[in-house]
């Protein structure tokens, strides 16, 4: 595992739910005997926060804060489509390589193939192997070619995060290149910032938007999937804030 990825994931586990709120509750339990009011307050805060962020209605609101509008038209002066990897699965026992892309990456590839066929633009896929194994970009290129019948011109297979997706892609396409950038809707704002700061002119083509089911009593009932998506949204919001502080 890449050391920087290990450090970032460890920090994120402590700053994001459920890790942050579990730490609050554990701290509260430790303080119960010495400072019972503070201890009870921390435990209550942890439980309440976990409950609220597990509600689908809250998850949807958080995601809507960062999701951009959908692509309207493909610019005529665009040079390439750039598709970002979104992760992979190691225990892919149904695949010859034993590894394959995850569902988030598959959604991005599907949209990439649609836009590539419509626009005839060449495709760059970017994604390394921060956890080891086969690079995401290698798997992405194979699936685009073999399953979506979409050629791939550039394969950037060394990056370990969004910033490196951008900085290593610019070496292949050159600065000031106009690209159509494809990634998950909730990830797009941070990805756009990284690519524009690296010298690209970006048209966003977001996919995999949050599912907007009709409001009902179920929208207020805690669900594990909603907590996971809330955590992802908070991760992106923290990333956007960090990026703005640095630039």
From TrEMBL:
GO CC annotation, single: plasma membrane
GO biological process, one term: Gram-negative-bacterium-type cell wall biogenesis
One Pfam family hit: DUF218
Spans traversing the lipid bilayer: 12-32, 38-58
Top-rank taxon, per record: Bacteria
Location of the DUF218 domain: 80-239
InterPro entries hit by this protein: Cell_Envelope_Assoc (IPR051599), DUF218 (IPR003848), Rossmann-like_a/b/a_fold (IPR014729)
Alphabetical UniProt keywords: Membrane, Transmembrane, Transmembrane helix
Protein name, UniProt field: DUF218 domain
Lineage: Bacteria, Pseudomonadati, Pseudomonadota, Betaproteobacteria, Neisseriales
């Amino acid at each position: 595992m890449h050391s920087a990825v290990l450090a970032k994931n460890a920090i994120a586990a402590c700053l994001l739910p459920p890790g942050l709120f579990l730490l609050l509750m554990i701290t509260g339990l430790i303080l119960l005997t010495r400072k019972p009011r503070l201890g009870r307050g921390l435990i209550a805060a942890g439980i309440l926060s976990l409950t609220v962020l597990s509600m689908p209605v809250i998850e949807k609101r958080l995601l809507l804060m960062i999701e951009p509008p959908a692509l309207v038209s493909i610019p005529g002066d665009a040079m390439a489509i750039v598709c970002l990897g979104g992760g992979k699965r190691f225990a892919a026992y149904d695949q010859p390589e034993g590894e394959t892309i995850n569902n988030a990456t598959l959604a991005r590839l599907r949209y990439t193939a649609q836009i590539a066929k419509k626009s005839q633009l060449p495709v760059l896929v970017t994604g390394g192997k921060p956890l080891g194994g086969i690079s995401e970009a290698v798997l992405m290129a194979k699936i685009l070619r073999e399953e979506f019948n979409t050629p791939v011109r550039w394969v950037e297979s060394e990056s370990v995060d969004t910033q490196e997706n951008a900085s290593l892609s610019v070496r292949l396409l050159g600065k000031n290149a106009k690209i159509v950038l494809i990634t998950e809707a909730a990830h797009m704002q941070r990805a756009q910032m990284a690519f524009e700061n690296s010298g690209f002119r970006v048209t966003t083509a977001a996919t995999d938007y949050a599912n907007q089911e009709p409001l009902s009593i179920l929208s207020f009932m805690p669900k594990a999937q909603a907590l996971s998506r809330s955590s992802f949204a908070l991760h992106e919001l923290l990333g956007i804030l960090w990026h703005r502080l640095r630039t």
